[in-house]
Design a protein that fits this description.
Shape: globular
Low-confidence stretches: none
Structural class: alpha+beta
Strand order of the largest sheet: 3-5-4
CATH topology: Arc Repressor Mutant, subunit A
Order of helices and strands: EEHEHHHEE
Helix content: 40-55%
CATH class: Mainly Alpha
Strand content: 15-25%
Distance between the termini: 36 Å
Number of helices: 4
CATH architecture: Orthogonal Bundle
Radius of gyration: 13 Å
Number of domains: 1
Number of strands: 5
Length: about 100
Amino acid sequence: MPDQDRIACRTPANPAAATRIPRWKHDLLRGHILELVREAGPEGLLFSGLADKVAARLSDGERARLGSVSWHATTVKLEMEVAGELTRLPGPGLQRLVSGRR
């Protein structure tokens, strides 16, 4: 697969390091994650249920081609945090995600 068909996914802990995944996987999951965060509203989307919620939106074919929904959803979510598209609500308790562009 040509390198331009892959996107670097970074983590907030080490943005200099990156895992490269196929662009179609990134774009597919990014779209679903943005929709889920928007639907969750100001109280935020619980990260603990992210993979299951994304999986419920995928077709059988998408799920089969994607591989691990949990791994890919987490990888894309972390890149979205580094890129400023998502932010974690501050405070104790479970991790909740909101739009980083307010």
